C-alpha cells in the first residue's frame, strides 16, 4: 500500500513520513536514496542529520539507481518501508557534468512503478514538490524539474494515498484522511 508524501524544501515532509513510520507496529526499513558526491560538506551534514534522527531499531539500506529492486528486496508483509527521497534518487541519473541518462531513468522508473503495484507491506515515498516556481534558464535544472514532476505524477497515480506537507502540516490529496 504505497503512500506518496510530497512537499517543498524544509516543509516537514520527511519528519511527517518518519512520524508515520514511528507509529507503525511492525518492523521499519529506511531506504535512503541520496548519493554523496564531490566533497559537498554541507550536503553530507544534511544526510548525517537525517541519519541521526532515525531510531536505532529501524533497519537501514542505501538505494542506488535500482530502487525498484531494493523495494522488492525489502518488501515485508507486516513491515513498513520508508523511501527518502525520490528527488535524490533522480539525481543519480545525472552525472557530475549534469548529463542526464534518460534511457536508464525511463527503464528504472517503469520498474519502480511496477514494484509499487506489487508491494505487499506499507511503503512511504518522500518526494520534493518543486514545480511551483519560475521556469529556470538552466537546461539541466529544467530537465530535473520536468522529470521529477512526471515521476511524482506517475507515482501518485499508483499510490492509494498522497499527502502534501506544507509548513509541517499534512494535507491529504488522495485517499482517506
UniProtKB/TrEMBL annotation:
Catalyzes ATP-dependent phosphorylation of adenosylcobinamide and addition of GMP to adenosylcobinamide phosphate. Its EC number is 2.7.1.156, 2.7.7.62. Belongs to the CobU/CobP family. NCBIfam families: PRK05800.1. This is Bifunctional adenosylcobalamin biosynthesis protein. It is an enzyme of class 2 (transferase). The keyword DNA damage does not apply. Pathway: Cofactor biosynthesis; adenosylcobalamin biosynthesis; adenosylcobalamin from cob(II)yrinate a,c-diamide: step 5/7; Cofactor biosynthesis; adenosylcobalamin biosynthesis; adenosylcobalamin from cob(II)yrinate a,c-diamide: step 6/7. The lineage of its organism: Bacteria, Pseudomonadati, Pseudomonadota, Betaproteobacteria, Neisseriales. GO terms for biological process: cobalamin biosynthetic process. It catalyses: adenosylcob(III)inamide + GTP = adenosylcob(III)inamide phosphate + GDP + H(+); adenosylcob(III)inamide + ATP = adenosylcob(III)inamide phosphate + ADP + H(+); adenosylcob(III)inamide phosphate + GTP + H(+) = adenosylcob(III)inamide-GDP + diphosphate. One of its GO terms (molecular function) is GTP binding. PANTHER family: BIFUNCTIONAL ADENOSYLCOBALAMIN BIOSYNTHESIS PROTEIN COBU, PTHR34848. Pfam families: CobU. The active site is at 50 (gmp-histidine intermediate). InterPro entries: CobU/CobP, P-loop_NTPase. The keyword Transferase applies. GTP binds at residues 7-14, 32-34, 51-54, 62, 84. Keywords: ATP-binding, Cobalamin biosynthesis, GTP-binding, Kinase, Nucleotide-binding, Nucleotidyltransferase, Transferase.
